Amino acid sequence: MIRVPAEPSGRLPEAWRHCVGTGRIDLALRRDYQDSLALVQRDIGFRYIRGHGLLSDGMGVYRPYEWEGTRRVRHSFTYVDQVLDAYQELGIRPFLELGFMPSELASGEQTVFWWRGNVTPPRSHREWAELVKATLTHLVDRHGLDEVRTWPIEVWNEPNLTDFWAGADLKAYLKLYEVTAHAVKEVDAALQVGGPAISPGADEWLDRFAEFAEERDVPVDFVSKHAYTSGPAQPVPFGVHQTLAPAEDLLDQFATPRARLKGTRLAEVPVHITEFNSSYCPDNPVHDTAFHAAYLAPVLARGGDLVDSFSYWTFSDMFEEAGVPTSLFHGGFGLLTHRQIRKPAYHLYAFMARMGPDLLARGEDHLVTRHPDGRVTVLAWAPVDPSGETPGPSRHRLRLNLPIKSRQAFVRRSGVDEEYGNARTAWQAMGSPRSPDAHQLAVLHEAAEPVRRHQRLPVEGGAVDLDLTLQRHEITLVEVTPVEDESPPWADERRLLGGQPR
Amino acid sequence: MIRVPAEPSGRLPEAWRHCVGTGRIDLALRRDYQDSLALVQRDIGFRYIRGHGLLSDGMGVYRPYEWEGTRRVRHSFTYVDQVLDAYQELGIRPFLELGFMPSELASGEQTVFWWRGNVTPPRSHREWAELVKATLTHLVDRHGLDEVRTWPIEVWNEPNLTDFWAGADLKAYLKLYEVTAHAVKEVDAALQVGGPAISPGADEWLDRFAEFAEERDVPVDFVSKHAYTSGPAQPVPFGVHQTLAPAEDLLDQFATPRARLKGTRLAEVPVHITEFNSSYCPDNPVHDTAFHAAYLAPVLARGGDLVDSFSYWTFSDMFEEAGVPTSLFHGGFGLLTHRQIRKPAYHLYAFMARMGPDLLARGEDHLVTRHPDGRVTVLAWAPVDPSGETPGPSRHRLRLNLPIKSRQAFVRRSGVDEEYGNARTAWQAMGSPRSPDAHQLAVLHEAAEPVRRHQRLPVEGGAVDLDLTLQRHEITLVEVTPVEDESPPWADERRLLGGQPR
Amino acid sequence: MIRVPAEPSGRLPEAWRHCVGTGRIDLALRRDYQDSLALVQRDIGFRYIRGHGLLSDGMGVYRPYEWEGTRRVRHSFTYVDQVLDAYQELGIRPFLELGFMPSELASGEQTVFWWRGNVTPPRSHREWAELVKATLTHLVDRHGLDEVRTWPIEVWNEPNLTDFWAGADLKAYLKLYEVTAHAVKEVDAALQVGGPAISPGADEWLDRFAEFAEERDVPVDFVSKHAYTSGPAQPVPFGVHQTLAPAEDLLDQFATPRARLKGTRLAEVPVHITEFNSSYCPDNPVHDTAFHAAYLAPVLARGGDLVDSFSYWTFSDMFEEAGVPTSLFHGGFGLLTHRQIRKPAYHLYAFMARMGPDLLARGEDHLVTRHPDGRVTVLAWAPVDPSGETPGPSRHRLRLNLPIKSRQAFVRRSGVDEEYGNARTAWQAMGSPRSPDAHQLAVLHEAAEPVRRHQRLPVEGGAVDLDLTLQRHEITLVEVTPVEDESPPWADERRLLGGQPR
Amino acid sequence: MIRVPAEPSGRLPEAWRHCVGTGRIDLALRRDYQDSLALVQRDIGFRYIRGHGLLSDGMGVYRPYEWEGTRRVRHSFTYVDQVLDAYQELGIRPFLELGFMPSELASGEQTVFWWRGNVTPPRSHREWAELVKATLTHLVDRHGLDEVRTWPIEVWNEPNLTDFWAGADLKAYLKLYEVTAHAVKEVDAALQVGGPAISPGADEWLDRFAEFAEERDVPVDFVSKHAYTSGPAQPVPFGVHQTLAPAEDLLDQFATPRARLKGTRLAEVPVHITEFNSSYCPDNPVHDTAFHAAYLAPVLARGGDLVDSFSYWTFSDMFEEAGVPTSLFHGGFGLLTHRQIRKPAYHLYAFMARMGPDLLARGEDHLVTRHPDGRVTVLAWAPVDPSGETPGPSRHRLRLNLPIKSRQAFVRRSGVDEEYGNARTAWQAMGSPRSPDAHQLAVLHEAAEPVRRHQRLPVEGGAVDLDLTLQRHEITLVEVTPVEDESPPWADERRLLGGQPR
């Protein structure tokens, strides 16, 4: 029995919902994408969204042409506006990532992904700077300076990997960063620019980045890196499998920037984990499972102690880095599949969104908070075995003694596990239909609904005893509400069918 | 183990959803009403809707005035049009009930209900006939003759009760019927008129009605009566309790018109039960319970053998015969409460709407049908004790052997009982809040969601064994679908976390 | 030519949209009402809404009952919550009017209106005070104290008229006011209570009210009265005609409270004109005309100098004081008819809603404002002859020299007059169909659309010359926007069909 | 004065709205696209929609992979289903075009358009046939055979042009056609297959196609070609200008297939013009003009006499063949711009959609029809000068004597010309903003609204005289409705302001 204190130890940080990842930014033109994001915003409410490709060819921004014998450039924002207007309508702000290279401005032909993002440095740093300035100036004109000052601007993506930046050339990146940062500040000195958006395992780039910023007096308003826990890819057709490190490894990765930058000029700037997940592959089925939600739960509960944001990569399976998915469930990153089937990780986030602002307790299998109106909310999760050597315990018991100001308490519980709230399990039972028809989609939507239970519990000594049994890989949200009983004195269930009153 | 035959014995009649009842017709102007009806139509899809008050003052149809010294009448359809346009938009047709009396046309001042419907004969049968003709002519002009010919037109409501027709005067009713039927046919001979809309226990009125129709050659296109099973009201503040007869009693009441009219000119006309329910009181909590759904299930399964329609009274708690309800749950007739909380009886109807057209089997605790696409659907219900002497068995087991054309079957089950899919239970646990706030309403909407389970079952000998355990007062829908397995050969759950393939 | 100054003389007061009137409050349960209010809020955006009947029987609040031999009272908020939740959803707050009397609490049987609001004093002032306190306590519980403190609470309606308050008994009103005001303050001292909500022509009640408040130290947080300009009713069937005083008469009526209360304790409290219109009859066709918009335009332009609000009575024709309307256009108060046909007065309000916050100029036929982004907006109106002796000039010319910061200006004009933006004219041409069908409604919606014109004008000396000709009874909105020309050098209309470039 | 006969000469063919074109099919995943199509379907209601790219890489259908050392192919319909489900929801059916080549199945690397559709023959005709069969089988499984039998299946696009089919190789096309047609018929013999989808000026391909079909007994269920009237492109940056042939030239092009195929086996098969427009360039500003609507009006009025369908290329500016548009108005093919601004050609189609089924008269500047309810509708257009040598007459007068069965007629007119209903004119006056902000978009939506006028006209001798003056490049819709006058005897406008009655 864990006794939860009646007074909060502080606020639950909002870092877990500060930002979320998205497939390349032009996918935001899609209806399925927008439908998914609308659902996410209704149930979760992320503040920012970050994705690749803002300056890639698909967005049509950089448009050279000839007129009267001279080469000129038109900067065009037809799709940028459609995307950002949609974000505004959906109540989410962009966490801008500047990249990749427009092919007509690129110095080489190397591309990344099925959709061919060019990853080479600009042919002309002057033209790149013009492009950056034109883009930000347009955004400021359209959205207002006060607004755009709240949008972080990150320079490039994972330049430490050869796939994402030709030759993983640190010097070339620092040059690009410097040119970009100055271009940003030329538009407005209060715009927020940062980097280096590195992948896991390259923290030495942080040191170089800090040194460079100091030596050259380059503006850095925030520092960013990514975090993943998966091992090497074991490919199967249209998919991969991978081993996973324990979830704590994510928290360790979150912690390194602040540790590493201590004593540098960047010691105090915000740290954003601009991508995190278990597997970095968009076709690893682990993303679709109840295991995945239970695995990530402690990360969401604790990550905010370490960084200013950690951004789940990504909110939707509408994502085409490895091509168009060939099956509804395909191991995509999404909290949602195409067609808005909610995965267990979606529920994890939706449950987090229902936690209160005041932190009462936090343990290895639970998080307890309180709302201003007195409701106490518990997020609990079953322990998992990421090694895969055991299936995880089939039952996990957790007893909490929760403070509550009333004589009776109403308890509402929502659960997601291997059986309930688990559309993937239902989908497998249906025969794993790659292109489900309307009826099958309806079944899956229904299957994704968590199971709900309700009960009245007595309050004793200002607290209620909550005895929870979790199923394998279950995450569960419990809301305990003070009861004010309005049932009239004549209420008597024994009389329902005309029987004698008590 | 019940072996369900592979070949249908016939079609499942649609009488159960031919018609539904509504509070007085001007309530259809309300938004909560329309929101509720939209939900009902999405999930159930009734064909017709019937309610009182079309000609009562609230609809503003009969409007005498003076001009140049003469009394004249304007017939006005401002609200009639708003209501019928709403019905059209919602995909439901009116089952017209002509009544009650406009107060300026009435011969007396007796009224019924909190909303004061005048229940006296017309001061002038000529003016009444003009009113009927003007109304139907307007409807034909607006909706087209083909359409209006499909709308049954019922004359008055429960004239055999003194509350509803001054003095329960049979002769006066027959006179009203005659005048009305001729007025209807004057507009168009193919319009459908009928009566006498009697309450239970007055079947001798059917005999008199048939004799009168024969003697006076009065058109009768259908016969109507009502059916209820409750005993005398045991009042409490804002509510009543009543004993109930067994549900079979409803089927017996359905059966009497055809039996009684055999050999008369009305032997072959359609029979409509234009109202039915357990209790006839709009403030009996039994309407809100899981018991009520399990109690009515066999009636829905069998009623269509006996009559052309039986119309649940009513689809929504938006109903004011006893005044404005003072509490969210208050024992209203509705399938839905105000604010669209689904009651167990709502789920019963929604489950029926998912049954297939082909009838495979029917028993005392189950109904089995098949869809053209091969899906087999089972509606099962736990037996209830309407005497209230026992609480009903806490568990009920049912084993069915179901024909299915595939090697594997996908089984999807939705259940509603005392705990799950039961917002009333949750509401009581919350302290019976009379005016729930937005958060409480959200909890109740969630609590009203049935519990869902999914599994894969093997098919042997062209059939699947379904072993169901029902909880107390449970109704459950099971859908069994042939599985075509698309999972690829490389699918292997053991590899999810990077483990070795099998 | 009127030269409009480049610098604002101040802010345009928002009194014109502080509040709007509504038919009795339970009509807010209707869908047509809510659809209309949604449109109004989208295009106009009133802050508050005020109507009769909050405590009348139709809302079902006051519910006496017996239990264990004792009479008790249940206060019930089923419909109050539905109405106020709808207002909240629609972004408008209630301007609460406490009245009329629940019939079971009334001391007499006198009623007002077709819907029979009881206008007699309470049988028990103690029970009335309990009712007031229970209602406000419920509202505070549900909506929060901060919110409810922003809702004005007005005691009764037009107690100086015998129709609205038995005997127009001043003493009885002051007693009611006193009891009510103290009950309100008992709930929370910062709730805002006021009165006496008098009809025009009874300003001596203001003197008595102020004296009484002073003598008895009764809280008065605001003072309210009504203003209308129509003469005696000349009835026709389903309608009336009336003479009208000039519109300035409304401004004179607005001005009297502050003048009269100078030197009293109420000298500084806000003054709300809680109802105003030309005719006080809900069936005077003048409300539906272009004349009416042009007549009221100067009142909207100037009224805010005199009072804190002046509330148009009412936003919609969904209004039943004289019974259910018998025709789409029937002279109702509404800015909108049933089915949301916009009347000219609707456009007047919608035009006002597009004026900027900075007041540049105001004249007898125009109002000029500027938005923060530099747009200059002009509301202009043709002079009318309210005596009806002349039809009003067929053309009216207005020349304005408007300051604008650019080299070119884009001019956008919307107009409503006897022909354009005038559904009533189209409706008459269609034959005045009382119950228009769907096609006719579509024509009327289209006919209600203002006519729009656009042009580019040169700017000279920092200003643009706007030469407007208004048609009879026209109101027109002109928006002048600085142009930044982005047309490329190769743009050349002569080449559209392959012709030679210039 | 043209006297229009009272009796129809026949039905107005629906060929004008049988089909509409779209940018490449995966654009249908976009929200702007679906919003536009929803509007088009509401106002126009096309039956079918045709676009390129169903089998191109962007749709992700053809997906080779290796498993256990063998190359295999997965056919995947993730996006096909999303697109066709959207079409179904929007009430439009696909006119399937089979192409272009999946790059992994292609025999070469030649591509067309910015989005790089591969235009080379398949590397393996067997695999192509498998792809075709798998696709159609999937569609039949999902949508039902009855439904898919109504979907025309066209083989490739403009194979007579080297841009669209490597080498414009006739023999290779006939081979592809043959393989495809047999593959289609293998799925179901009643599926409808056709070609050769040629561009203008290649009618000899029709002869070869017919001979080949006859010689090899290849199924051909319909014949298709395209029609355009523009001359050579005169490029400017981000646009082109072109000369245009007179609109009659389109009708001539429509007529050739039937003429040419007379006497062949294809003489009786349906002829579909699967693309038509004035200019074939997606960046010719003529598409955005009032001229364009007036130019096409006679084609819509007469085209149905010559072919079974003629499909406007395309419904929306969401179209990327020449890259992402850099400006809101850019000369796109669309009836709608991005963001759903209606162009004059949109109104032409919307006006056509309001014409009646019975054809009364047709002239060089007008089309007259009647609805079953007696409404007479006139589409009139001003003559244009496509040579561009004159601007077209500034006024055009048309007098029609229209039969109408009533004593009075209600006349409703909607007009679009150089000033009214013309967002492009307003956009130019605004300074041609390439990326309009929300306010500017609202202005443009408003500016796109046609001007409306209404009047009552007397009927004499069963007919009404309609005297129309059209402005330059005006298209106008006039609806003449019989009036049944319901205005009461006491209606008298002179009493509006309390004046004396007549």
From TrEMBL, chains A, B, C, D:
<comment type="similarity">
    <text>Belongs to the glycosyl hydrolase 39 family.</text>
</comment>
<dbReference type="Pfam" id="PF01229">
    <property type="entry name" value="Glyco_hydro_39"/>
</dbReference>
<dbReference type="InterPro" id="IPR017853">
    <property type="entry name" value="GH"/>
</dbReference>
<dbReference type="InterPro" id="IPR049166">
    <property type="entry name" value="GH39_cat"/>
</dbReference>
<dbReference type="InterPro" id="IPR000514">
    <property type="entry name" value="Glyco_hydro_39"/>
</dbReference>
<keyword id="KW-0378">Hydrolase</keyword>
<protein>
    <submittedName>
        <fullName>Xylan 1,4-beta-xylosidase</fullName>
    </submittedName>
</protein>
<keyword id="KW-0326">Glycosidase</keyword>
<dbReference type="InterPro" id="IPR051923">
    <property type="entry name" value="Glycosyl_Hydrolase_39"/>
</dbReference>
<feature type="domain" description="Glycosyl hydrolases family 39 N-terminal catalytic">
    <location>
        <begin position="4"/>
        <end position="456"/>
    </location>
</feature>
